[in-house]
């Protein structure tokens, strides 16, 4: 038996607060709790016909929420990420932080080629393939980006 849209809404209204509070308590992060909430209800709606009683349903919601939180917190991806506020500083040596900040302030079409060339060590051909642009376009963006960066660094006297 597939639930109607109204029945699904009622299910979320009935169990949603419990799932969200548990996820928030386990992850200590609003965005992570929202992700867990969404995953739990997506899984529930795929298997909604399995549950016979509200006790069974509640136990499943709790177990599924705890398991999704564990999976999220133990994810290798999570171990390789940093908060967005510090992302600009990660992987950049102290000597280059001001220069990198200047690179980040360039327009997007110049920022990518400058970053890929100087910080990632890609060739023009590799950048062209990665950016899906002609090599000539990448060369001109790299040249214009260098000129803008040079002017910015002269003004800042770096």
Report the CATH architecture of the largest domain: Orthogonal Bundle
Give the terminus-to-terminus CA distance: 68 Å
| H-E string | HHHHHHHHH
Morphology call = elongated
Question: How many domains make up the coordinates?
Answer: 2
Strand content: under 5%
Number of strands: 0
Q: What is the helical fraction, as a range of percent?
A: over 70%
**Biggest sheet: strands, sense, closure?**
none
The secondary structure category is mainly alpha
CATH class descriptor of the largest domain? Mainly Alpha
CATH superfamily of the largest domain: RNA polymerase sigma factor, region 2, helix turn helix motif
Rg? 24 Å
Low-confidence stretches: none
How many helices does DSSP assign? Answer: 9
Mean pLDDT: 82
By CATH, the topology of the largest domain is: Rna Polymerase Sigma Factor, Chain: A
Summarize the structure.
With 158 residues, the protein is mainly α. 75% of the residues lie in helices and 0% in strands.
Structural summary, described in words:
It is a single chain. By secondary structure, the chain is an all-alpha fold. The chain folds into two domains: 5-79, Orthogonal Bundle (Rna Polymerase Sigma Factor, Chain: A), CATH 1.10.1740; 84-156, Winged helix-like DNA-binding domain superfamily/Winged helix DNA-binding domain (Arc Repressor Mutant, subunit A, Orthogonal Bundle). The chain is 75% helix and 0% strand. The chain is built from nine helices and no strands. It has helices spanning 5-27, 30-46, 54-74, 76-79, 84-87, 97-104, 108-119, 124-131, 135-156. α1 packs across α2, α7 crosses α9 and α8 (124-131) crosses α9. It starts with a helix and ends with a helix. The model has no long low-confidence stretch (mean pLDDT 82).
């Amino acid at each position: 038996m597939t639930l109607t849209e109204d029945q699904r809404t009622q299910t979320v209204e009935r169990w949603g607060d419990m799932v969200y509070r548990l996820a928030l308590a386990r992850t200590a992060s609003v965005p992570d709790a929202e992700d867990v909430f969404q995953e739990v209800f997506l899984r529930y709606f795929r298997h909604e016909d399995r549950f016979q009683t509200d006790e069974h349903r509640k136990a499943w919601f709790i177990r599924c929420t705890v398991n999704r939180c564990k999976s999220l917190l133990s994810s290798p991806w999570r171990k390789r990420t940093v908060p967005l506020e510090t992302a600009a500083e990660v992987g950049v040596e102290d000597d280059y932080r001001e220069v990198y900040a200047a690179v980040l302030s360039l327009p997007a079409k110049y920022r990518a080629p400058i970053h890929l060339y100087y910080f990632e060590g890609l060739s023009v051909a590799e950048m062209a393939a990665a950016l899906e642009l002609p090599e000539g376009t990448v060369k001109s963006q790299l040249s214009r980006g260098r000129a803008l960066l040079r002017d910015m660094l002269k003004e800042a006297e770096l």
